Amino acid sequence: MRAVRRNNLTANFNWIGSDGWAGRLLVSEGNEPEVEGTLAFLPQAHPVRGFDNYFLSLTPLNNKRNPWFIEFWENHFQCRYPSSPPTPYNQNWQRTCTGREKLSPEGTEFERQLQYVSDAVMAFANAFKDMHQTVCKGQRGLCKEMVPIDGSELLKYLRRVEFTGLSGDRFQFDDYGDGPARYDLIHFKQVSTGRYRWLPVGEYHSGQLKLDENEELLFRGDQVMPPESICSRPCNGSQAKKYVEGEGCCWTCVECVLYQIRNPDDETQCSACPQGTLPNAERSQCLSIPEVYLRPDTGWAIGAMSFSTIGILLTFAVLGVFLQHNDTPVVRASGRELSYVLLSGILLCYMVSFLFVLRPTDIVCGVQQTAIGLCFSVVYAALFTKTNRIARIFRGGKKSAGRPGLISPKSQLVICGGLVTVQGLILLAWLWISPSVAKHVHPTREDNLLVCSSFTDASYMMGFAYPILLILLCTVYAVVTRKIPAAFNESKYIGFTMYTTCVIWLAFVPIYFSTVSHLPLRITSMSVTISLSATVTLACLFSPKLYIIIFHPERNVRQALTMPTSKSSVHHKKSNQSSNNGHLLNGASKTTESVKGLMASSAVHQPSPTASMSSSTTPQQQMTFPEAHLQTEVVPGQQYDGDLTVKVMTNSGTISVSRIHLTDKIHHSAMNDRSHHQTPFRHVSL
């Protein structure tokens, strides 16, 4: 207590005392401000009957058997007893004790532990009594069985004693050899200014604590509220306990870092929340982050679906126009069957966007995995079939006068179906080996995205590999057939479609790989790219045909589709059979440009003059065409006869002929300038 006072910490401590020092004047005397407010437990004791009178009657003269009684007498009466040895207490006392001083109840305070001394003596007395009665059978004095006394036997009797002591309390030992658990709760407080006392405020007996409601507890400074006295404050839910080394009851609170909570099974540890969860506000548990995917009501999805919806409506509009004019020359010349396949593929491309806004599941991811590559394969397989057919026709026409194989509509559908089947097999193998499944990904610690696994890496490019190959092949064929005459200029539109598609996909690839941390943008960019490619194909290939069908129906006839070449060079020689009325066509001619496009093969025409063609390299054959036109350049006022090398355009294709012999005279005396002339004929001899 003196150390507390020296360090000026009197107000910082509130004591809880045990029976070792609580209630003793030796501790509290002179240290009252430091001890004030102390609560202590003392073994409960009551006055021993008759001991007060006995002790107050003692003097040094009648109590010589107690060697410490004279020292007590000197201290109590503050005098020095004659012939007593010097002690630290009696050296300053000048008065001499007479031994006849009297102890009074007012000046004498007895220790509370007297009852326990009395109970201990009586416990042994009763144990000896019980043992003597049992062993000596009522014999007076000690019998030989108790000489000497066996301590272990005496302990048995001692544990079984039961009596009422001189204090009036019942005494017996419990099963553990302890006496009755009776305690008084005492409180050291200031009863008046500068006057302090230990006062009882409650008791503990028979396992129950009883407080004296009439006795007010006063803590330091007359405070009635109990002081807060702790070694360590409890940690809140976001903190872990870090125990002080060597202390099992004191700790410091350590704040758990971001995304951590206190371990529910070990309050000394912080645990990180699993991916996809975040701590709650109290940092007491981890809560799941709401999953995010490309929902239909988000801005990205609305934009992509709006684009696709417009494309679907346009596709159905084109399909309706084509069906309404199904038998017109423009529709027939464009290859009706492949055009409808192409429109189906374009429609699939637009519809794929709606798959991206569905909540990802394993089934949805599998459908996405196959649908993306399949729709492209349908489109570009049809375009490849078209360009390949044109290229084969004109390449074969330079080598032979015969008609190339596999150019009929049925053959074209078989080729296109075979190309799409290859993609289908690739997609099935991919789906079997590495199926796309729904999974949660976390680009940042606070994200919980639900996406298809194929979108998290570059595996979707496997579905695009085959369509990209078809795009490249279509582009090559578009370049090869770019100089076909204007009569068959669909190849130019296909070429423009391919060039634009390549640019779109070259722009998409870096966007796809740079949006790995923004998966909604990656999915949207893929959707828009697919729809944009379909739009380019729809606009470039079908808008010219729709323009003629809707705005210039007069050009949607057979004759209008047989248009002149850009320029043909005719090498001729005058015949020696010339006359003033006309000129006979004679000479060798070589076409400088190939025919572009194909004519439908089922139109009905008026009879036309007949031309017979002969070749020096092949046997002569007779072929009949529904309609064909000789296209060459003639000079007005001249008459030609003889052989001419030309290109013959028919409804089902073109045939390159080395020499042609006209059986009909062509008179152009009425023409005033150089012009292109088209001569219809039906029968051609090869």
UniProtKB/TrEMBL annotation:
The UniProt annotation puts the region (Disordered) at 563-623
Matches recorded under CDD domains: 7tmC_mGluRs (cd15045)
Q: A single GO CC term, please?
A: plasma membrane
Which intervals hold domain G-protein coupled receptors family 3 profile?
Answer: 300-565
Q: Which SUPFAM superfamilies does this entry report, sorted A to Z? A: Periplasmic binding protein-like I
Composition bias type Polar residues, residue spans: 576-594
| MF (Gene Ontology) | G protein-coupled receptor activity
Q: Which PROSITE patterns does its entry note?
A: G_PROTEIN_RECEP_F3_3, G_PROTEIN_RECEP_F3_4
Enumerate the subcellular locations listed in this protein's record, separating them with semicolons: Cell membrane
Regions of compositional bias (Low complexity) in chain numbering: 606-623
Which regions span the lipid bilayer? 300-323, 338-358, 370-391, 412-433, 464-481, 493-513, 519-542
| Keywords annotated in UniProt | Cell membrane, G-protein coupled receptor, Glycoprotein, Membrane, Receptor, Transducer, Transmembrane, Transmembrane helix
Q: Which Pfam families match?
A: 7tm_3, ANF_receptor, NCD3G
Q: How does it sit in the membrane?
A: Multi-pass membrane protein
Write down the PANTHER family for this protein, in alphabetical order: METABOTROPIC GLUTAMATE RECEPTOR
Its biological function? G-protein coupled receptor for glutamate. Ligand binding causes a conformation change that triggers signaling via guanine nucleotide-binding proteins (G proteins) and modulates the activity of down-stream effectors.
State the similarity comment.
Answer: Belongs to the G-protein coupled receptor 3 family.
**This chain belongs to which protein, by name?**
Metabotropic glutamate receptor
